[in-house]
Amino acid sequence: MQSQSYYVPAQSPWPIVGAIAMFFIAVGAGLTVMQLETADLSGVVILSLGVLILLYMLFGWFRHVIQESDKGLYSLQMDRSFKQGMSWFIFSEVMFFFAFFGALFYARVFSVPWLGGASNNQMTNEVLWPSFESAWPLLNTPAGEVTQAMPWYGLPLINTVILLTSSVTLHVAHKAIEKNNRMQLTAFLSVTVLLGFVFLGLQVEEYIHAYEALNLTLQSGIYGNTFYLLTGFHGMHVTIGALLLGIVLIRVVKGHFTEQKHFAFQAAAWYWHFVDVVWVCLFVFVYVM
Asked: Taking the model in full, what pTM does it have?
């Protein structure tokens, strides 16, 4: 029997555990970037510790929420709160990427032409970087290093097809759960999770190619910085989305969810479709244009 009162859980240790994890991730990521040209691995160790703590927090918190749901502690108002919370969370993620795309557009539309002498700023060009040519992507750095742009074909195009395909398979799985077709649900959700991890594997291969063959590194000026900033954060979101769908898949195998009550599946699907839309924008504005 589902409770009609608004369930208020007891004090939980998971928020502070998550805060500690994010602290280690932030410090570790910063040190890792600073130590790229050295043999010091302390940043990698701290970053890895933060990721492990974060995974521990996620699985522990998810377990508690699942147990509370299975006990019937959540009312209809609680379900609406979950939907509103997930909606606002995705909106915050939209603003997160909006800021980074804004930085990319500002650099391309304003900063690069200005540095190249546009809008009567020829003196600025002569003083700051006399040999600078206003073009995108910027393949020359002030230090004289030359890099190459990542082409849109090859691995980026393959990854685009993979993510778009994963959205289709996830949609089929969503329709299957609404019809209580457990076999089709399990099969297509499994394919979606697999495609997510294949995407991540190919992105790692793309980064290796960028560093070794194209000399495209974090030291490659504004182009390299915006490239890794956008694709890296997107890869992090794909990782989170794949983990969420993986947890949902485990619950599906255990017989959780019904045709009417499957918000955990729905929330993970919302997040995954959002990640796919971001990648399409990223593919167009970072790789193609």
From this structure: 0.84
